[in-house]
Amino acid sequence: MIDKVFNKSISKQFEFDEEVASVFDDMLERSVPFYKEMQRLSIVFASKYLEENDRVYDLGCSTASTLIELSKYFEKNLNLIGIDSSDAMIKRASNKAKAFGVDIEFLNDDIFNIDFKNAKLFISNYTLQFIRPLLREKLIKKIYDSLDDGGVFIFSEKLISTDKALAKYSIDEYYEFKKTQGYSSFEISQKREALENVLIPYSNEENIKMIKDAGFNHCETIFQWVNFATFIAIK
């Protein structure tokens, strides 16, 4: 379905409800620059560290598209677990996984309520930015403690620049991108207002510091378009 969530006046903050879930795949591809390429690179890099029967977590799995694509690309058996607190997302993810014949365990709960088992890979695509900063750092430490030695954490985030001028230029360019994807100025402003104080981005430096403070040996950017980036962290 085509994303038309914000073509009307908003009455609440952004949330991953049924209305959003029903158009989420379209929303991602039209709202996140080069989303498919980011996803492809994440899968390619992840596969370099995986072996058969490794456990993989996707935090904030939404409709499970990344886990499904990883399963198709890697070909060998993996223990795939998708976590999302949204009932609507989990229902769509489950139906999509069945349609593609991919075996995924879905957990419909808050990330902090789940005891992770040891895993080789954690994925988090544009999820951390919706978690409050103090809790965000606790989650990164929890991920680190649950990773096998040599395991990786691949995550994508919207960024904020510490330079005021660059921050403005980046936002302006992003809004121009959204217009090329068919979003109106009204829709863009409505979504911006709905996300106020809900989506809290870090700078590139803050993301890397958070990762290093948790104990990871290495972290670097593997993809970036203006204020959107994908990182890989290695334990």
Report on the architecture of this protein.
By secondary structure, the protein is α/β, with parallel strands linked by helices. It has helices at residues 18-21, 24-31, 35-47, 65-74, 87-100, 133-146, 164-180, 185-195, 204-214; strands spanning 55-59, 79-84, 104-108, 119-125, 147-158, 218-225, 228-234. The chain has a seven-stranded mixed β-sheet with strand order 3-2-1-4-5-7-6, sandwiched between helices. The mean pLDDT is 93.
Radius of gyration: 17 Å
The major pleated sheet works out as:
7 strands, mixed
Oligomer: single chain
Beta fraction of the residues?
15-25%
Query: Topology as H/E string?
Result: HHHEHEHEEHEHHHEE
Write the layout of secondary structure elements.
Blueprint: H1 18-21, H2 24-31, H3 35-47, E1 55-59, H4 65-74, E2 79-84, H5 87-100, E3 104-108, E4 119-125, H6 133-146, E5 147-158, H7 164-180, H8 185-195, H9 204-214, E6 218-225, E7 228-234
Short summary:
This protein has 235 residues and is an alpha/beta fold. It is 43% helix and 21% strand. The mean pLDDT is 93.
